[in-house]
Write a structure and sequence with these properties.
Radius of gyration: 35 Å
CATH superfamily of the largest domain: Transferase(Phosphotransferase) domain 1
CATH topology of the largest domain: Transferase(Phosphotransferase), domain 1
Mean pLDDT: 81
Number of helices: 14
Helix content: 40-55%
Strand order of the largest sheet: 1-2-3-4-6-5
Shape: elongated
CATH architecture of the largest domain: Orthogonal Bundle
Number of strands: 9
Length: about 425
Amino acid sequence: MARKAPATFEELAIENGLVTETQVQECIAAQGPPGGDGTQTNTIETIMLAKGFMNEDQVRAIKTALGRLQRDEEKGDALRIGNYEIIGKIGDGGLGTVYKARQISMSRDVALKVLHKKWLSDEEFKKRFLLEARLAGRLSHQNLIQVYDVGRDRGVYYFSMEFIDGETVEDMIDRVGPLDVPVAMDITIQIMHSIHYIKQWDIVHRDIKPGNMMMTRKGQVKLGDFGFVKSKLDPVISTEGEVLGTPDYISPEQAMGADNIDWRSDQYSLGCSLYHMLTGKPPYEGSGSSVMRQHIKAELPDPRTINPKIPDPVMTILERMMAKNPADRFQDAAHLIEDLELVKMGQSPSSARLDAGKSTIIRAYKIEQVRVERAKTEIELLRDEVRRMKMYVTIACIVAATMVIVALLVFLLKK
């Protein structure tokens, strides 16, 4: 994966997004022909400064980075992808492998996601991978991990992201156990802000879980790993019958493979994550398929059996977020955030507790109750009919026996 360093100042400036190719061509044209000794009177960086395409700090940074790249290139011993020097592996995902890397030109640590080799044979997929990564790169929110750069290097497709020097919320739960209610609510509010933001771009994350929530050392929470986002990649990365998402936190509609999911699916997964934060474990247990079935039709286990300290206002929010039917969840993201803020401050949410009669499970239970009652009624009616029939048969038998006896007596008396 070693790579030749950018040969010129303008190449590195373009690679770091400081200028465009059009601007570079304009500067080259402005240089004019070289002098008699073959050198240019005006350097590219001088012209860029004059035209206002770059400032002095940017020029100085690029020149320093160019010198560093050229020195590193002479050593030739670094494992690199593009402008990134690999430090170590962070983990694997469905789309690629994530490394901790050093962006040499900017002298900063990043998380570098590299597309798996199994996807490299599909040209259409590679094009879409870059397009979707660039879409993520346009997202900018304090509670989202920022995407910096997208590119390819000698057949390797990658994008770089903000590197968070902290731990995931899942790591925190494993380390300290169930989180205090104010801490859990604060994390939920921050992630809900990120969901509200991507909702405006018509993006559904589809893999909200504590393992994808990164905590900075300053307590800021950032949502990462957009490998399962609902996007144009769906028909490419999905196989028939495949359900994207993590079973422990998957929404009922997502578990059933519904195509028309929206942000309310992420709301449900965030509710499952809140449950995990408050109790130390996800709401359902068992195999992946068993857990998904429970998400679809099982009642929500009461988290207070595990953590009695959970107050009623939190239960009001949690039950609504985890309603089986998306129509019974919060329909407005801003409203959910407002209620979460109220509960965090120890107040009651503006939303009433979810009417038990509206839950999918209770509806199904009541329908079943009606069926049972109707069946019981029919059975009782049948039993009454049988009892009447038995009574009629008994009377008929008695009458018949009586008639036979009477007939015998009459016959005997005549003799």
